[in-house]
Amino acid sequence: MLKIRYSLDLELTNSIRDMALPEELHFQVRNLVVKTKKGSVLTKGEIIAEHPAPGGGAYHAAVGGKVTGVNYHSLIVNCTGGDDVVPPVDVNSMGKGAELLRVLQGLGVGVSQLSGKAEVLVINGLNPEPGVSVAQQLLRDGREELAAGLALARRLLSPNRTVLAVPKGDEVTIPGAESVQVRAKYPYSLDALVVRAVTGREFPEDTRVMNVMDLYDLGRVSLTGLPITETLMTIAGNNYRVPIGTPVRHILTVLGLETHPGDSIVLGGPFRGEAIYSLDEGVKKTDYGLFITSSDAIPAVQDAACINCGECVLQCPARVQPHLISRCAEYERFEEAERYGLNSCFECGLCAFNCFARRPLLQYIRFAKAQLKAKGQGAQA
């Protein structure tokens, strides 16, 4: 068994930097409900798409401009600029409840973890993946936003206990939360494992969990009343504030990063991120990193046959059988994949990362979940 624990400890040498605006924004709108059309002139902060999920946050234009293209996958905005901005919303003057949740959702906040009442609220303060330091950076430089976000989250959930999970040896605190130290090794930074470390229970129904990136966004909305139009990304060792929809090509050009034929460019992290198919692809709200992987560094993923080595099973922190789930997904036997624990998988990516046959295990798992979700929605319709 290849037993490796991947460190989340990183050294911060700079503050958050602003990424220059591109000439065009390329929003990924696949599976979103588009709320604009080609030829429309947008104001900065204007809504462009809504999330179909009940708790999903809307998407907004990071800058004023004209919509020059819309298709199934993407929406393109020419950044002509302009000083007009959508009027702010005073969310702090609103009473807690369904109306406030709808307003937050309309401002780009995912509210699935903010509804109802929680006995325990856990704030995941660990870096999400090796090489990504946005959580660590926000705990150092985003204290005002985090405090405002936590105050609003506590007002909505009324928890009896609020916990900030931080790496062992770190004394960081947020007003209103007690700090609990958690081992800073991947995959222990995943929400499900952080909750288990804090509460001693697996998937407790009375517990809500938020990462510090989402808490920071909630705090910015609370302080400014403006929608979320940026994401924070670790790129080449530094953290940048990047407008959502910024094409990868623009980032590479601005930072002087070189790529070569055969290289893979991953948005997200090295375990859970997704390789892009085009340099024109825009960054998403939940992309917290950009990585370039040389074609010589890691063997290419391929649709090879499983060799039954069992490595993915030994690595799996959810205690499911990724090799069997992926085989069912590969041959579109999705209900059978559920019986092998598909819905217990929290997509850490360790199975695919450690697969000796280089099978796309995580992609198969996500494919199966997406197909079952689409089938369920179709049945309801």
Brief write-up:
The chain has helices at 98-106, 134-141, 143-157, 191-199, 212-224, 248-255, 311-315, 322-330, 334-339, 350-354, 361-380; strands at 6-7, 17-18, 24-28, 33-34, 41-42, 47-50, 59-60, 65-70, 74-78, 120-124, 161-167, 178-182, 185-186, 207-211, 230-235, 238-243, 264-267, 274-275, 289-293. By secondary structure, the protein is of the alpha/beta class.
Task: Describe, in plain words, how this protein is organized in 3D.
The chain is globular. The longest helix has 20 residues, at 361-380. Mean pLDDT is 92; it is low at 377-381. The chain has 381 residues and is an alpha/beta fold. Among the domains are: 91-224, Rossmann fold, CATH 3.40.50.11540; 311-380, no CATH class. It contains 11 helices and 19 strands. It has a 6-stranded mixed β-sheet, with no helix packed on it. It has a 4-stranded antiparallel β-sheet with strand order 3-9-8-5, with no helix packed on it. A 4-stranded parallel β-sheet has the order 12-11-10-14. It starts with 5 loop residues before the first strand and ends with a helix. Residues 297-327 form the 4Fe-4S ferredoxin-type domain. One of its GO terms (cellular component) is membrane. One of its GO terms (molecular function) is 4 iron, 4 sulfur cluster binding.
